[in-house]
Amino acid sequence: MDQIKLPNIEPQRLQAVKDLCLTQPTQDPGLDRITELTARLFNTEIALITIMTRDKQLFISAFGTNIAEIPRQDSFCNEAIFHEQPLVIEDCFQDKRFSELPLVKDAPFIRFYAGQPIKSPSGFIIGTLCILDSKPKKFEHNELRNLQDLAMIAENQIKYIADTTTDDLTGLLNRRGFYGQARKHLDLAMRSELHASLAIIDLNRFKDINNEFGHAFGDRVLRIFADALTQSTRKTDLVARFGGDEFVILSIDKHSDDLYKVRDRLKTAIAQLRPLDLPQAINIDFCIGALEFKPTAELDLEAVLADAIQCIHNPT
C-alpha cells in the first residue's frame, strides 16, 4: 500500500470525524438534495459529500454512483483536504498526481474533478463536496464560488445531523444519540461491576422491499419494526437505529443469550403491529448477532459493534 499523505493535525482531524459519528451513508434527504443539486448545477455525472477516515474515503451522500467508499490512497480528495480553496483538476490525464488513480484508469474513468473541503463544527476539515465527470471540463471563477457556497450548505446540514440525537423516521436514538448514551450506561456498568451485552439487528431483504413496493412502504416497515423492537426490550435497554435497516440494542447486566431471545418477542410484536393494508408479499424478517462483554475504561465500542456484526446469523 502506498503511504498516505497526512495533514499535520491528522489526530485532531480524525477525532473530529469520530465525534460526528458519520461512518456510513447517512440516507439523509438534506445531504442527498445537495449532491443532486450540485450535479445538476455543474452538469456533472457525479457529485459526492465525503468523509475522510484513517484509511478510507466514505461517500456519505452520492449522486450518480453506487460506490460507498474507496481506499484513501486512491482518492482525489485526500489532496483536497490540505487546502482551504477548491482543488480543481480540469483533465486528470494531464496531472501526474492523479493520472494513475483507479478511478481514472478504470470505471468510472474520471477526467474532471473539483472538490471543496468541508469542515466539522469544531473547525477541522473532515471531507469534501466534490464533482466528477468522465469528460475534461473548464471551471470558471464563478463556478468556484458556487461550489464553495454549496459546501457551506453541506457543512450546515452535517452540523444539523450532528446536533440531532434521534432518528426522525422511527423516533429511536440515532447513531450519535446511541454513542452519547452508551458511554454513560457503560460507565455505570463498570462502576457497578456489571457485564453488558450488545446486539446488531438487520432487516432481511429490505432493499428489495424498497425496490418492489417503494420507499413509502419501506418507511412503514421501519416504523413497524422500531415499534416492535421497543415493545420487545426493557425500558433500561438502549435501542437505536444506526441508519438504513440496521438497529442496535445495548443491555446492562444481561447475557447475550437473553438478547437472542428478543428474536421470538420481536416476531410476536411484528405480527401484532402489522397493519391489515400492508401487502402480504412484504415479509418483515431479520437477522441478529449478539455478544456479551465486560465494560472497561479502554473499551472501543466500535470494535464491539464490529464483533457483534460477525455474530449475525439468520433466524430459524
Offer a concise description of the structure.
InterPro entries: GAF, GAF-like_dom_sf, GGDEF_dom, Nucleotide_cyclase, Rev_trsase/Diguanyl_cyclase. The protein is an alpha+beta fold and 316 residues long.
Q: How would you characterize this protein structure?
A:
The protein is of the alpha+beta class and 316 residues long. The protein has two domains: 9-163, 2-Layer Sandwich (Beta-Lactamase), CATH 3.30.450.40; 175-313, Alpha-Beta Plaits, CATH 3.30.70. It is built from ten helices and ten strands. It has helices spanning 10-20, 29-42, 77-80, 102-105, 141-163, 175-191, 206-213, 215-232, 256-273, 301-310, and strands spanning 46-52, 56-63, 69-71, 87-89, 112-119, 125-133, 196-203, 238-243, 246-252, 286-293. Helix 2 (29-42) packs antiparallel against helix 5, helix 7 runs antiparallel to helix 8 and helix 8 (215-232) packs across helix 9 (256-273). The longest helix has 23 residues, at 141-163. The radius of gyration is 22 Å and the shape is globular. The protein starts with 9 loop residues before the first helix and ends in a 6-residue tail after the last helix. The relative contact order is 0.11.
